[in-house]
Structure prediction request, 307 residues.
Amino acid sequence: MTRHFITIEQLSDGDLDSIYALARSPFDDETLKGQGVALVFERPSLRTRASSSVAVHELGGFATFFSDEEVGIDSRECAEDIARTLAEMFAIAGLRVRNHAIFERMRAASLDRMSLINLLSGAAHPTQAVADVLTIADQFAKGDVHGLAGLEVAYVGDATNVTRSLAVALLRLGVNVTVGAPTGYQLSEGGPEDPRALKSVGRLRLTDSPTEAVKKADVIYTDAWVSMGVEAETDQRRRELSAFRVDEKLLALAKKRTVLLHCLPAHRGDEVTNAVLDSAQSLVWRQVFHRRSAMIGVLRWIKGENS
Prediction:
């Protein structure tokens, strides 16, 4: 059966456990030997492209990159025809797209002949969530993701696709997640990767107070206020989210051992200050390292390796 990695919520606990384990265990260069992986990027990214390319290479395969200008999903060519074309040449395609519904359209059009990996969509960012879980496990549980139960993670700022996948992944591991965001920026209900609909061991709490959000936090997570596609709202977002900036004062309200996570790129001075981002409490570069680990785990799982 063809395996797809499109959201965290679609995967069983066993599959997630396998991905976490495969991301950390020894590997060789035989898994993708002689095989190509298509990387289709409707949106740009430094870390996603780098980690995907390196992971494919280290597993013995080769990556072929396709930019939005080359492919033009639903502008130059419909998503279905792109899927049919890629499925004739590749067994795996990683896609970074605006519209999450494209995954199901491409899966159906390719008749499940090609595994799909969500490298970011408007609704979810599951590879980032895997990397984040691995990073937190390094810091608090000697790498054991099941040692994270009871931990307190606070996400502050604009609750985005990153927030959704992160919350689903952590809640399923028994981590308590608090999302601090003002009205209009809080987690929305419905759609794929919805932590508000999840029945889980961990507790989800929503608040419009940044200070309440971080008060008991072991981890504070933030992301850019101005993401791709909303640049016209820059001034408005800076005004409405200014109280949610992670600075030394906000960080001091949390525990002494609290660490910072940020999926990058960071807009220094907006959602986070230099003093915090560059501090000893910042784990952002360990997150970058684990973007590669996450892709290795996902690719090995897709190919049916045992953890």
User: Anything to note?
Assistant: The beta strands are 36-41, 62-67, 92-96, 115-120, 152-156, 176-180, 204-207, 219-222, 259-262.
